[in-house]
Amino acid sequence: MAHPESAKIRIMTNSKTEISLTKKVFAKIVSAVSAIALAVSLAGAVSAEEYTESYDAYADNGTAAVQSADDAATAQSADVKVAGAVAEKPKLDQVKLIRETKYSDATHPYNRQTSAITVNWNAIDNAQKYEVYMKTKQKDGTYGTKWKLMGTTAGETSFTVTGLKRNWSYAFKVRAKASGYKTGKCSKVQKINTARIDYDRAGWKAMCRIVYHEVGGINDSMWDAPIVYVSDCVVNQYEAAKYLNDSLWAPYYRRYSSIQDVIYRSGGFMSDAGLAYDGATYGRVTDKVKKAVYGAVYDKVTVSGIDHDDGVYYWCNTSYRPNSYKVAYSYKIPWGYFNIWTEYWG
After folding, report:
1. ∠ CA(188), CA(77), CA(19), 5° rounding?
2. What is the rounded distance in angstroms from the CA atom of residue 231 to the CA atom of residue 341?
């Protein structure tokens, strides 16, 4: 006698409760359960083997319309909601990326800023691992549509991607995973730039100190432009020498392996002792100067919406208009006044 999918199958549970299921629903239950690794309780009822045995005995001519217990053991698990038999997996929370931290190694590891980016995020309860995905900025300014899995952490909330392009932008997102849980929703996208130059802690302090010194420690808003452009000058010279093989700067700075050596030892700037003598210690460097230096290093607007200029290599604190095209900016510091005379702003 044939049994259509709407035919009823009656099962007597351990609690002596009779349950009536259609053939179609019964087939879904059997195919979703691993007879080897998992015993599914249906209203406190029976084992997976008993389900399969009952159904096989009920089928025509001994031919079951569902997978056998051996097949079921290899089938993928599924969310089956029948009489509350299989509970729905709980969800993991969405990962939240930590905003890029300026002036430290929290996002860009010292010495590898031009080729590496470290992504950081908050821990998610019950998460066993995190997947980190990345997209690269294209020449047309877009980031494309395909995300690449860069790696998985074993619970750590930080991941460093290496082998990146200098002075370029990358997009990141992260999601949490755990056994027995639904995979968490991906974080919001975070875009981070690699740097124009590499530096260590001493190099960072040297750049900030020389900019602070050259603007006389002034923090007034009318000094925003000089602060930005002096920062540009420092970064541009080192970038031109080390990364661009500029004919003017490469021969001059070739002997120096770090930005602090260029500032302290080349003679083109000032020595560590000279800066200290003039009071240009790192402890006195203003936040505005740090922002300007950070903006110059990572090509980001960080002070008063002023764009950086990657074509300026000199600055001057006299009032004359410079003749060299490379001396793009000059300003005068009048004794007794906090003011700026703009001679030439490019």
Report:
1. 125
2. 19
The string of DSSP letters for 267-297 reads SSS--HHHHHHTT--GGG--HHHHHHHHHHH
User: Mean pLDDT across the stretch 153-171?
Assistant: 95
Alpha helix (H) residue ranges in 36-184:
48-58, 69-74
Q: Is 114 helix (H, G, I), strand (E, B) or coil?
A: coil
Q: What is the mean pLDDT of residues 280-302?
A: 93
* Percentage, residues of the chain above pLDDT 90: 48
Angstrom distance (rounded) from CA 330 to CA 346 = 10
Q: d(Cα 48, Cα 37) in Å, to the nearest integer?
A: 10
In the three-class reduction of DSSP (H, G, I as helix; E, B as strand; rest coil), residue 230 is classed as helix
Instruction: State the pTM of this model.
Output: 0.65
Residue 212 CB coordination number (10 Å): 28
> What angle is formed at CA 293 by the lines to CA 290 and CA 296, rounded to 5 degrees?
150
Specify the higher pLDDT residue, 192 or 33: 192
Cα separation of 322 and 233, whole Å? 15
Nearest to 298 by CA among 125, 141, 114: 114
As a whole number, the mean pLDDT across the chain is: 75
- 150 by Cβ neighbours in 10 Å (0-12 / 13-18 / 19+) ranks as middle
Segment 182-206 mean pLDDT: 94
Question: Phi/psi of residue 48, each to 5°?
Answer: -65, -35
pLDDT surpasses 60 at 4: no
State how far the Cα of 62 lies from the Cα of 253, in Å rounded to an integer. Answer: 87
In which band, very low, low, confident or very high, does the pLDDT at 34 lie, cut at 50, 70 and 90? very low
First to last CA, the chain: 94
Question: In the structure encoding, which two tokens stand for residue 140, read together?
Answer: 């047309």
Secondary element (H or E) of residue 120: strand 117-120
